[in-house]
UniProtKB/TrEMBL annotation:
Protein's UniProt keywords contain Cell membrane: yes
The name this protein goes by in its record: TVP38/TMEM64 family membrane protein
Annotated Pfam families: VTT_dom
Subcellular location: Cell membrane
TM spans (from-to): 20-46, 58-76, 109-130, 137-157, 163-183
Domain VTT residue range list: 40-157
Lineage: Bacteria, Bacillati, Bacillota, Bacilli, Bacillales
Membrane-topology annotation of the record: Multi-pass membrane protein
Keywords: Cell membrane, Membrane, Transmembrane, Transmembrane helix
Family: Belongs to the TVP38/TMEM64 family.
Keyword Transmembrane on entry: yes
Major subcellular location class: membrane
Organism: Savagea faecisuis
Length: 204
């Protein structure tokens, strides 16, 4: 059953079937992914772009993922002091990330959210535990997800062409691999910066 959600054609059929309900399904699926990050966001974005068209599909996916991500952030912000989450907060890696988010703010978070292979659930969680202002994080989410969702929507809006035009498929595959590589390089650089900044602070 779960593997169906990794099938673009299945999700497109689902979006087409429930298209009569209006934009609800198109917003709901990306929103659910924010709470269940093992689900494939890119499949939902592809399906929305294919079913609703590039512009409308992009807007629905963007709204859904921003609403879901911000809801996770607010839930962590509200309940982050309970016993279970408090234990996670004291984990060295999480502690370093919280410190770094509070110190660096907009730029690095925006970059991380822009890339589709960034673990956004972790970013939402850490941001919720930090002292970052609610309005600031909402703005970062809206801008970062705008870039990410539009990129994925543009890639996937004509899914059938991926199966009929091998050259285009190859080029898109290369582009996705490049996005993954650059994203991982940025992530590694930021992680190194986290470690350096945190060590410098603890030595003082």
């Amino acid at each position: 059953m779960l593997e169906q959600w990794f099938d673009v054609e299945y999700v497109m059929e689902l979006a087409e079937k429930y298209k009569a309900l209006g934009p609800f399904v198109g917003i709901l699926l990306p929103m659910i992914e924010s709470f269940l990050p093992f689900l494939p966001l890119f499949v939902f974005v592809f399906a929305n772009a294919g079913a609703y068209g590039l512009l409308k599909g992009f807007v629905l996916s963007w709204m859904g993922t921003v609403i879901g991500s911000y809801a996770v952030f607010l839930l962590v912000r509200k309940y982050g002091r309970n016993k279970i989450l408090k234990r996670l907060t004291t984990h060295p890696k999480v502690e370093k990330l919280i410190f770094w988010v509070e110190r660096n703010g907009f730029g690095p978070l925006f970059l991380l959210i822009c890339f589709p292979f960034t673990p956004s659930a972790l970013v939402n969680f850490v941001a919720g535990l930090s002292d970052l202002k609610r309005t600031h994080y909402l703005f970062i989410l809206m801008m970062g997800k705008f870039v990410m969702i539009f990129t994925i929507s543009f890639i996937g809006y004509d899914l059938r062409a991926l199966f009929t035009q091998p050259l285009r498929t190859a080029l898109l595959g290369l582009f996705i691999a490049l996005l993954w590589f650059v994203g991982k390089r940025v992530e590694a650089h930021l992680n190194a910066k986290v470690e350096k900044d945190f060590n410098e602070l603890t030595k003082k």
